[in-house]
Amino acid sequence: MKRALLALLVLAAEVVSSAAAAQGAIAAETGPESRPTRIVLSAGPGLDDLANRFAAELTSLHFEVVRAAAAAEPPAPSLLEGLALEQQARAAVRIAAVEGAIDLWLVNPSTHEAVYRRIVAERDPAVAVLRSLEILRGSLIDVRALAPTPVKPPAPAPKPIAPKPARSRPARSPRTLWFGLGAAATSLNARHAPAWGALAGLHLAVLPKFCLQAEALVPLSESSVAGQGGRVSAWTGAFAIGGSVAPWGERTFTPTLGLGVAALALHTRGDAAEGFRGTSDLNVVAWPHARLAGTLRLSDRLRARAQVLAGFATPRPVLLFADERNAAWVNPLVSGALGLEVTLN
């Protein structure tokens, strides 16, 4: 009897190993890290050694074996199903020894399938065990195939990659302060050639469409007025302040309109004819004026400026030629300028 049982275990290992290809597909699905399929093993009295060997063979086949208490009488299939459900197992196996034979039960509670096999030991035990394990092997493969496929935990959602902030150019600071140099022509009398001078100015933008100006006119040439008894030569300088409005804002070409007032310095020198005497004098008068100007942007830091200033001097200066009074000059007084400006910020 004991030799037949040992032969049963040895052949069970050989038969189940021969099914490695069929079980390999199932094992691949469950994966090496999945939980093994659980089986409840119940053995009759006096079969502890056989049950231990049987449990070892099932464990080597990646089954989890749970030993149940030995019972003298073989339980009914319904009781074996209840035993499997109680242990949360996929199958229950019962081994019992009767006189001259071995009884084998396998119950699958999922399909309610029950397999019973009696192996007569007096005959060829190897053949009897082989036939029994063929039945047992197929049922065990079904048990594993019916086991739920472990659900792989979902892959963690990839962390959203924050878009790189667009590299924007720093905002260009507004050009508010400009310094300019240019040439100016000032007409003291429409009937005579203008006097030339150099014009230097500062222009400060205080609002998007409004700016303040401060300009100085330095004379470079003189103008002359002829009359009875001789000729008068005049040098004209000025310092002006004012404000201008750009109706359409700053652009490539920016026209402006403005008003201002200037301190006008007139230095006169009389060249007398024979019989007359000439004198020299310096007069400072106010010159309120209107301004029409335009700027053309040449680059980010350079622009060209053209402007015309026109107004009347007050109090009105008068030239004396013997008994003749000449009050027509410097009224109106017109000054035009053309130059370049560079930003200082």
Number of helices: 5
Could you say which overall geometry the principal axes of the C-alpha atoms support?
rod-shaped
**Average of per-residue pLDDT values:** 76
Cα-atom radius of gyration: 59 Å
Please trace the helix and strand order, writing H or E for each element: HHEHEHEEEHEEEEEEEEEEE
Low-confidence stretches: 4-33
Key attributes of the depicted protein:
345 residues; alpha+beta; five-stranded mixed beta sheet; 5 helices; 16 strands; 21% helix; rod-shaped
Report on this model:
With 345 residues, this protein is an alpha+beta fold. It has helices at 2-18, 20-30, 48-60, 77-86, 125-146, and strands spanning 37-43, 63-67, 91-98, 101-108, 113-120, 177-187, 195-207, 210-219, 223-227, 230-245, 253-272, 280-297, 302-311, 319-321, 324-326, 333-343. The protein contains five helices and 16 strands. Helix 1 runs parallel beside helix 3 (48-60) and helix 1 (2-18) packs across helix 5 (125-146). The two termini are 110 Å apart.
Summary?
By secondary structure, this protein is α+β, with helices and mostly antiparallel strands. The chain has five helices and 16 strands. Strands 6-7-8-10-11-12-13-16 form an eight-stranded antiparallel beta barrel. Strands 2-1-3-4-5 form a five-stranded mixed β-sheet, sandwiched between helices. The protein has a two-stranded antiparallel sheet with strand order 14-15.
Helices and strands in order, then pairings?
Blueprint: H1 2-18, H2 20-30, E1 37-43, H3 48-60, E2 63-67, H4 77-86, E3 91-98, E4 101-108, E5 113-120, H5 125-146, E6 177-187, E7 195-207, E8 210-219, E9 223-227, E10 230-245, E11 253-272, E12 280-297, E13 302-311, E14 319-321, E15 324-326, E16 333-343
Parallel strand pairs: 1-2, 1-3
Antiparallel strand pairs: 3-4, 4-5, 6-7, 6-16, 7-8, 8-10, 9-10, 10-11, 11-12, 12-13, 13-16, 14-15
Helix pairs in contact: 1-3, 1-5
